[in-house]
């Protein structure tokens, strides 16, 4: 069994999803209430899906706070809160509103004992500060490309980072993989995302694993064993 810790599964056709989950356990993130509802429905239909609900920081200016009330009704069926977070790189103009929404999600994660699946370009320090202050038990910093000197602090709080399948073309992901201890690494595709001419999809975690194993100097079976353990601890599967 392979593991993808962050995919927008709701954007794929059902036929592709059925194909993916035959060999991959997938943490499916959401972008808003409609996608959160579809994610929950998918998890009720297919095995090997860990459903996350949330509002992506790129969408906070497109929805009202009433959407949070709708999402609240889905919490009992969710196993994760995401994709949520802060983004200073791509949407700095909505940062204050992002913080308002993110604090709600962080409180949900703490109160309901759910892990966070976090988006944080150029806001890695901000996010870690908010999450640790709220005493959240589990968090994944997805597609981590942040400061290398923050990795150990993330680990100290028992949190994880995921390395994207874009590692095949992104040097920063290779640097992060070299510097990050195995006991906090997960893999992801963030599919279906277009990055430098590549359409990222869940099966690409297999190639990413081969690259990470080579960079870490470990066997591929040992790497997947570590990934499986990390995935199980974070998402309680």
Automatic annotation (TrEMBL):
It comes from the Archaea. InterPro entries: Metal_Hydrolase (IPR032466), TatD-like (IPR001130). It holds the Pfam family TatD_DNase. SUPFAM superfamilies: Metallo-dependent hydrolases (SSF51556). Signal peptide: none annotated. PANTHER family: D-AMINOACYL-TRNA DEACYLASE. This is Deoxyribonuclease.
């Amino acid at each position: 069994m392979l593991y993808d810790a962050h995919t927008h599964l709701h954007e794929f056709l059902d036929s592709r999803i059925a194909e993916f989950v035959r060999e991959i356990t997938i943490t499916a993130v959401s972008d808003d209430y409609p996608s959160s509802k579809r994610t929950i429905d998918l998890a009720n239909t297919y095995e090997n899906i860990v459903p996350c609900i949330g509002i992506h920081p790129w969408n906070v200016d497109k929805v009202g706070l009433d959407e949070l009330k709708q999402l609240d009704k889905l919490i009992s069926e969710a196993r994760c809160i995401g994709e949520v977070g802060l983004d200073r790189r791509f949407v700095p103009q909505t940062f204050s509103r992002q913080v308002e929404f993110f604090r709600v999600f962080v409180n949900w994660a703490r109160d309901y004992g759910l892990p966070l699946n976090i988006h944080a370009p150029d806001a890695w320090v901000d996010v870690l500060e908010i999450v640790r202050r709220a005493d959240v038990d589990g968090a994944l910093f997805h597609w981590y490309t942040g400061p290398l000197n923050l990795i150990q602090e993330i680990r100290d709080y028992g949190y994880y980072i995921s390395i994207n399948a874009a590692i095949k073309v992104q040097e920063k992901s290779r640097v992060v993989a070299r510097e990050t201890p195995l006991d906090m690494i997960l893999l992801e595709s963030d599919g279906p995302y277009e990055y430098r001419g590549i359409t990222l999809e869940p099966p690409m975690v297999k190639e990413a694993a081969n690259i990470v194993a080579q960079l870490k100097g470990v066997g591929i079976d040992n790497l997947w064993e570590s990934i499986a353990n990390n995935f199980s601890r974070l998402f309680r599967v």
